[in-house]
Amino acid sequence: MKYSVMVEYALHSLVYLIDAPSDESIGIKDLSEFQGLSETYLSKVFGKLSKAGIVSSVPGVNGGYKLAKAPEEISFWDVIQAVEGIKPIFQCKNIVSNHLMYQNQECSSCTSSNPTCTINLVMLEAEQHMQDFLSKKTLLWLNEELEHVLPTTIREGSREYFKNKNSD
C-alpha cells in the first residue's frame, strides 16, 4: 500500500489553514512558495479537497482557500479519500480458480462477489482497522501534536509568514 505524495502535501497545507482567521484565506501561490512545492500540483490537490468539501475557495485577487469545516471534523481518512479516491487496498483476483485442483470445477468460496474467501476477509479487516485509526486522527489532533514536536520558532514563524502575506 502506498499513498501518493498528494496526501502529504494536503495534510501539511491544511495545517496552515487552521490558523487563518475565518474571514481570510491563503492562496495556493503562498502555500506552494512557503513549502517549496509546485503551484500547479498543489492546485490539483486543493481541487480535490474542495470537491470533497474539506476546503472552500475564495475567489478574487486576494482569494485562496480556507477550511470548510472545523479542524476536529476533518480526519486523515477524509483527506486520503478526497485525494486518492475510494478504492480498496486489497483487490481479490480469485487466483485460486487457476489452481490445478480446481481446473475442472468451480470454487464456490472464491468468487469475487463472495466475501468468505479467508485471505480477502483478513485483508478487508486489516483495511478497516486502518480506516478506523485514520478516522480518529484529525487536523486538530495534528495541530496539537505539532505544538509539542516542533520548535516554537517554527510554529510562530509559519503563522507570521501567512499573516504577513494576507496583510500585503
What's the quick description here?
This protein is mostly helical and 168 residues long. The protein has helices at residues 5-18, 28-35, 39-51, 76-84, 118-136, 139-149, 152-167, and strands at 55-58, 64-67.
Strand order of the largest sheet: 1-2
CATH architectural group: Orthogonal Bundle
N-to-C order of helices and strands = HHHEEHHHH
What is the C-alpha radius of gyration, as a whole number of Å? Answer: 21 Å
Shape: elongated
**Tally of DSSP helical segments:** 7
Poorly predicted parts: none
Largest sheet descriptor: 2 strands, antiparallel
Count of spatially separate domains: 1
| The CATH top-level class label | Mainly Alpha
Query: How many distinct beta strands?
Result: 2
Account of the protein in words:
The structure is a single chain. This protein is mainly α and 168 residues long. The chain has a single domain, classed as Winged helix-like DNA-binding domain superfamily/Winged helix DNA-binding domain (Arc Repressor Mutant, subunit A, Orthogonal Bundle), CATH 1.10.10.10. Helices cover 54% and strands 5% of the residues. It has a two-stranded antiparallel sheet. Helix 1 (5-18) packs across helix 3. The mean pLDDT is 87.
